[in-house]
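re: the backbone from monday

yeah here it is again, tokenized this time
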């Protein structure tokens, strides 16, 4: 049921055992020189029968050493206490300050690098004598580590609880202030196949610049995996990848850290966790100024005109360019209409994306190509456009090939934006990633800037006569050119039909082809009837009726087949948060890439740089672990990961050096880029 990470646990145990043995055999072992983390027991007072008194164990690590929180993370162990108290006295649960994250060779540890104090409430016996000092002691064990070695340490600590209230130890004020306060409301949690999902009551006005959850439960989650957060009113929704099989706890405790040294303690009971709300920005990632994002979206849209994912619609653009030379008025009207179509489609797609994400859906840019019905509609449309370009029919009011018709240019712009934006390109990635986290109005402005960039070349041609004069003059050659352009459009239709089969199965694909044929037949018959052949009206009705029946059949024939497993010479691991954490924990380089059947840029990069014998050989020599995420179908885990990386779509390529941070690679890979990365020691 759960995701697994036994490799991390085994490695952590081996590393700890090796470190302890190595230190014990060393001639100048640190353990022989006294404790590397000194400890003292300090008591408040006075003694009050039946009432708690606070004790503090104050730890002071030597330079370069650190101690551990109660749940140490992937390696280490927490503090152990054996109290010697008078009869009837009882020690409560220790209270810890907010720990810090320490990543070493892919292992995530929860540590304290500076002085810290653990507070323990101790309740006096009912028969205790007020006004009488009491001595208590504790046998404590803890682990002291550097980034290289670990030493188990221990000490017997003793303190006297005073008989009367003396001058308070000023340090207690600081120690108690460092303990995160406890939320007075109980949260809820649920466990899915991959995630622990938490709903923690936190006021919506509370700022969370760097959120992270430390769980007291051992081995429940993947400590090194990214945590994702969203807001739903006064609830903070957290999703943490699971690590191991285990009994579902009835209660979960932990610390919700906001930033360095600040946080709150929480308790959650098993229950229902609401759907994700508005996603929080990735910790530590500052969004650039809006003007920079606008320029990035504009440049990204402009570069889409030369990206591989735009090649299938270049035929439509070429015809628009050729028509622009007819007259000043027509050229401007065409440029404005085309721009309006592109920007309207871009804003509409962006707005729908924002609405779906606000409703809790984990979707990203080009989400429409993950829906079988949308892809089927695009395939039918591409087939009809192919027939139109080939001259099988000509619609008088809605034709992408008519000259000087704003309606035609507008339709071309709509189609260009829908089909040309599945893949993100340079500059565009950061802008669209930020759009998912910005207020709605600013986000929609970014989507509009993207559309303006995509349409900008045609808008300039429409308004600059010098550019139009560079185009060939209209003539009879355009009819031949139009028919030639039916070839790439036909290839686009075939690619979409292949994607329909991948998403919906064989029957779904066959019915899509039949629907395309019925639609083309209806258009052909309609065109002939307008030319004076009314006898074809009955055939036209039959074609329309057949199309309606096929549409009904499509809705009932869809099946979600298991995604075909594509062979890769890199033998990649399928992406999940837990699998990525396990791969990084092995101390080897990791190459992570995301692809989809509808992403042409992804496929080009794979053929040019990834699926190559030279790349496989370089990866084998360096021990590189490949991890692949397939986003052909909607995958909330991939969508959330992309959001945390500040990316709204694919392709996305990330290189992890051993024990290092993520390095995002260019979205257009060169043949030797991965080979060179693998060769770096």
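seq for it, each position gets an aa:
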């Amino acid at each position: 049921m759960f995701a697994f990470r036994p490799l991390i646990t085994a490695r952590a145990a081996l590393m700890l055992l090796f470190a302890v043995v190595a230190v014990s055999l060393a001639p100048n072992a640190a353990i022989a020189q006294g404790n590397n983390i000194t400890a003292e027991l300090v008591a408040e007072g006075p003694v009050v029968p039946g009432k708690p008194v606070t004790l503090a164990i104050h730890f002071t690590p030597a330079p370069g050493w650190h101690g551990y929180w109660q749940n140490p993370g992937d390696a280490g162990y927490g503090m152990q206490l054996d109290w010697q108290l008078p009869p009837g006295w009882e020690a409560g649960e220790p209270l810890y300050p907010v720990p810090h994250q320490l990543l070493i060779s892919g292992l995530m540890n929860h540590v304290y690098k500076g002085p810290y104090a653990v507070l323990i409430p101790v309740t006096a016996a009912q028969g205790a004598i007020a006004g009488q000092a009491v001595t208590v002691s504790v046998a404590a064990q803890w682990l002291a580590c550097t980034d290289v070695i670990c030493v188990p340490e221990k000490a017997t600590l003793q303190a006297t609880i005073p008989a009367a209230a003396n001058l308070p130890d000023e340090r207690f004020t600081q120690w108690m202030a460092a303990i995160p306060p406890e939320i007075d409301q109980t949260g809820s949690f649920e466990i899915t196949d991959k995630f622990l999902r938490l709903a923690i009551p936190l006021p919506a006005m509370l700022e969370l610049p760097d959120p992270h959850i430390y769980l007291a439960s051992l081995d429940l989650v993947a400590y090194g995996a990214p945590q994702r957060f969203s807001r739903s009113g006064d609830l903070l929704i957290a999703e943490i990848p699971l690590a191991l099989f285990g009994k579902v706890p009835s209660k979960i405790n932990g610390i919700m850290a906001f930033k360095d040294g600040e946080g709150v303690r929480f308790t959650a009971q098993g229950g229902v966790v609401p759907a994700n709300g508005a996603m929080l920005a990735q910790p530590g990632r500052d969004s650039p100024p809006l003007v920079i994002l606008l320029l990035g979206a504009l440049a990204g849209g402009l570069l889409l005109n030369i990206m591989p994912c735009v090649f299938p619609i270049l035929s439509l653009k070429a015809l628009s360019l050729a028509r622009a030379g007819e007259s000043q008025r027509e050229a401007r009207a065409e440029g404005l209409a085309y721009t309006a179509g592109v920007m309207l489609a871009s804003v509409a797609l962006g707005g729908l994306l924002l609405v779906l994400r606000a409703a809790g859906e984990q979707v990203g840019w080009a989400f429409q190509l993950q829906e079988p019905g949308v892809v089927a509609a695009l395939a039918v449309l591409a087939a009809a456009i192919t027939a139109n370009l080939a001259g099988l029919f000509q619609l008088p009011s809605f034709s992408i090939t008519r000259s000087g018709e704003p309606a035609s240019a507008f339709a071309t712009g709509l189609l260009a934006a829908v089909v040309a934006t599945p893949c993100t390109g340079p500059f565009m990635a950061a802008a669209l990633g930020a759009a998912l986290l910005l207020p709605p109005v600013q986000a929609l402005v970014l989507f509009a800037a993207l559309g303006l960039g995509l349409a900008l070349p045609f808008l300039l041609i429409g308004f600059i006569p010098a550019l139009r004069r560079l185009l060939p003059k209209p003539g009879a050659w355009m009819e031949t050119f139009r028919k030639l352009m039916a070839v790439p459009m036909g290839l686009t239709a075939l690619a979409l039909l292949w994607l329909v089969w991948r998403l919906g199965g064989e029957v779904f694909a066959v019915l899509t082809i039949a629907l395309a044929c019925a639609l083309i037949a209806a258009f052909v018959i309609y065109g002939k009837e307008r030319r004076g052949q009314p006898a074809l009206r009955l055939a036209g009705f039959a074609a329309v009726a057949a199309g309606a029946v096929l549409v009904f059949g499509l809705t009932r024939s869809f099946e979600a087949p298991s995604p075909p497993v594509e062979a890769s010479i890199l033998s990649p691991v399928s992406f999940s948060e837990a699998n990525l954490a396990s791969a990084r924990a092995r101390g080897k380089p990791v190459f992570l890439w995301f692809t989809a059947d509808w992403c042409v840029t992804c496929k080009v990069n794979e053929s040019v740089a990834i699926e190559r014998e030279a790349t496989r050989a370089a990866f084998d020599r360096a021990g590189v672990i490949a991890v692949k995420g397939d986003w052909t179908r909607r995958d909330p885990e991939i969508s959330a990961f992309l959001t945390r990386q500040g990316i709204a779509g694919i392709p996305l390529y990330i290189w992890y050096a051993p024990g290092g941070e993520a390095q995002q690679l260019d979205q257009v890979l060169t043949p030797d880029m991965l080979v060179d990365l693998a060769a770096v020691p």
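The chain has 19 helices and 23 strands. Confidence is low (pLDDT under 50) at residues 1-33, 396-401.
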